[in-house]
Design a protein that fits this description.
By secondary structure, the protein is an alpha+beta fold. Helices cover 40% and strands 14% of the residues. It has one domain. Helix 4 packs parallel to helix 7.
Length: 212
């Protein structure tokens, strides 16, 4: 029997195939961030569809987590590239039908309710489960995990159709991503030093030749 595939759905009004990048947004549990795939270039489409089928993507609570750290064949970060190209769309969760298998479907808003019940939390708190959060660690601070990785993407998705990003919008996106990467790098450095403390450098004194 074929295994269900997460993160894939269709829009109820058009039937267009989409990838659900984030099933809810911080402070907006009735909204999701989706990526229509039909209009993408073959290279981008194939790269995303191959990624969503990987074990890493299927184990991830949100597809956006994986997109944030993976790159397209041309070297562009996936999440950043889709945001900059205006591909991400913010939509109501009741407009998306998840299609985990060919002959099965479930409305995203109803699926979010079921997931929240399983995790013993409110739908509003689902965004805190990104990167391995748990019902025992839900707090306002946990939502920063989502905000740091897609802070600018929902803003871009809410822009009017055919709107163009300004230099300020792009700069804000870059700064947000730089801050997130800096914090992650600092955390990894701290963990590495705890596992293998760096050796202190010793200074060797060279005595001058008295006869010089």
């Amino acid at each position: 029997m074929a295994k269900p595939t997460k993160h894939i759905g269709r829009m109820k009004n058009t039937g267009a195939k989409v990838l659900v990048v984030f099933r809810t947004l911080p402070g907006e549990s009735n909204s999701a961030l989706i990526l229509p795939v039909n209009q993408l270039s073959d290279a981008y489409h194939d790269a995303l569809m191959q990624l969503v089928e990987t074990e890493q993507a299927q184990e991830s609570f949100e597809f956006g987590e994986i997109m944030f750290i993976r790159h397209f064949p041309d070297g562009r970060p996936m999440l950043t590239a889709m945001q900059q190209d205006g591909r991400l769309q913010k939509v109501s969760t009741d407009m998306v039908t998840m299609t985990p298998m060919v002959n099965s479907s479930v409305p995203l808003d109803q699926l979010n309710i079921l997931i929240a019940e399983q995790k013993n939390c409110a739908v509003d708190d689902l965004c805190t489960f990104v990167k391995g959060g748990s019902a025992n660690t839900i707090s306002n601070k946990n939502t920063e995990v989502v905000k740091e990785s897609v802070e600018s993407a929902p803003v871009r998705a809410q822009a009017p159709a055919n709107a163009v990003l300004t230099d300020s919008d792009i700069a804000r996106s870059y700064r947000s991503q730089a801050d997130a990467m800096y914090k992650e790098a600092a955390r990894l450095r701290k963990e590495a030093d705890a596992l293998d403390p760096p050796k202190k450098k010793t200074t060797t004194k060279v005595s001058e030749d008295a006869s010089a």
